[in-house]
Each structure stands twice: as C-alpha cells, then as structure tokens.
C-alpha cells in the first residue's frame, strides 16, 4: 500500500461522515482524494488547508454575511476529523478547507463565509499580506501566501494559501511537529534580510535558521511588503 493511500486511510478513519454516508461513498471519496494528491504532485494547484496534502489551515472570524445578486461556488460541510476540526469542500473537491473547532461557532455561517471568500478569490479581490518560505536542507519545502479578504459586511479574513512548488517532505510528520515547537520556543539563528518582488510588489524577507534533533536544517523566511514597513 502506497504512502498516499495509508495517509488517506488514516485521515478518513478520523472523519465523522454525514448521516446516510455509505461505504461506497467513502470509497469514492478515497479515490477522489488519491487522484487529487497525485495531480497536485505535478501541478500543485491552489489549496485550502487540505490536511492530507499538507496545506495550512485558514482562520475564519465569526459573523454573518449577506451577498445579493452574485453567483457563488457552492461550499458543503462534510464533518469532523479525528482532531475535531471541521471540513468544508466545494462540489468538485477542488477546494477543501479544515478549520479548528474553536474557529467555527456556527457551521452554516462559516459555510456562507467560505462561499463568499471563494467568490472573492475568483474575482481577484484580495491583498497579499505576507509570504512564508520554508527550506529543508536547501530544498524548498513549501511556500505560503497570506491574503486579506474583505467580506461584504466589512469583516476582514486572513487566509493562508499554498503556491506552486515545494517538496512537502515534512508534511504531517513528527519532524513537522518538532519544527512547529521550535518556532514557538523562540526565534532561530538570524540570517539577515533580503528583498524579492512578489505579485508586482517588493517584499522584505527576514531569514532564520533552525536545526531539528536529527540534524535537518530548516531555513524559514518571512516577507512583508516593503511599502508597508
């Protein structure tokens, strides 16, 4: 059994399916997830916090929205995984979102928020706030852009979205957990700063170096718009 299939099986075991969700439905979902992972190995299309594909979660604020006279991609609620996180997805599963339980005060409200965010994404109505680049032993591990979305009722939501490229070798592993703990413990070795043009704006990046217990070197770079500094 491949590593991808093992990951899918482990993940799906923790999902609480909707009522009347049959074994055949579960098998179909398993096949769809595997197909999506294989496709993203080469294309790495836009993702929304798909845990199996190792994409970071987004944070949704509470509050209702009202959208009139627009066509919105339908977002569905699937259930919870074994960590208690909520899973939302588009009809074709192109967009899959996982949210921590404490970020969802009302499932239907959150579902509507996600539909409006999807619409704003399609319209290009968002602002890049931050870029995070993780390098592992000299190889790109992942690159994440943090965008600001403004909903129709004025609420602001920041979303973390994966961008093309990256090995994702540490995804959903003990090494990744160790790396997260190191970041929480404090800053790494200061490697200085550099500048890079991202989406037609100059970003200033601060670089830090960490070492895991097995010697793995991780360089974490965080960039913010230079014109905002």
Write a structural description.
With 229 residues, the chain is an alpha+beta fold. It has one domain. The chain is 26% helix and 32% strand. The protein is built from four helices and nine strands, in the order H-H-E-E-E-H-E-E-E-H-E-E-E. It has helices at 3-13, 23-42, 107-123, 174-185, and strands spanning 75-80, 86-90, 96-99, 127-136, 139-150, 156-162, 189-198, 201-211, 217-225. The strands form two sheets. It has a six-stranded antiparallel sheet with strand order 6-5-4-9-8-7, with helices on one face. Strands 1-2-3 form a three-stranded antiparallel sheet, covered by helices on one side. Helix 1 (3-13) crosses helix 2 (23-42). The radius of gyration is 18 Å and the shape is globular. The N and C termini lie far apart (50 Å).
Secondary-structure map:
Layout: H1 3-13, H2 23-42, E1 75-80, E2 86-90, E3 96-99, H3 107-123, E4 127-136, E5 139-150, E6 156-162, H4 174-185, E7 189-198, E8 201-211, E9 217-225
Helix pairs in contact: 1-2
């Amino acid at each position: 059994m491949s590593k991808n299939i093992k990951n899918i099986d482990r993940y799906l075991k923790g999902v609480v399916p909707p009522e009347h969700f049959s074994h055949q439905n579960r098998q179909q979902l398993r096949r769809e997830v595997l197909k999506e992972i294989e496709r993203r190995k080469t294309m790495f299309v836009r993702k929304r916090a798909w845990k199996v594909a190792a994409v970071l979660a987004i944070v949704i604020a509470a509050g209702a929205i009202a959208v009139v006279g627009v066509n919105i991609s339908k977002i569905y609620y699937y259930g919870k995984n074994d960590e208690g996180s909520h899973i939302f997805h588009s009809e074709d599963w192109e967009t899959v979102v996982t949210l921590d339980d404490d970020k969802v005060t009302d499932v239907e409200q959150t579902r509507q928020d996600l539909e409006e965010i999807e619409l704003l994404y399609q319209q290009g109505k968002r602002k890049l706030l931050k870029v995070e680049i993780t390098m592992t032993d000299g190889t790109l591990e992942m690159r994440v852009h943090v965008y600001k979305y403004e909903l129709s009722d004025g609420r602001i939501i920041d979303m973390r979205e994966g961008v093309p490229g990256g090995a994702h070798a540490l995804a959903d592993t003990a090494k990744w957990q160790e790396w997260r703990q190191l970041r929480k413990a404090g800053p790494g070795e200061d490697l200085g700063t550099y500048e890079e043009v991202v989406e037609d704006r100059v970003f200033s990046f601060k670089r830090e170096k960490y070492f895991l217990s097995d010697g793995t070197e991780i360089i974490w770079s965080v960039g913010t718009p230079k014109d905002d500094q």
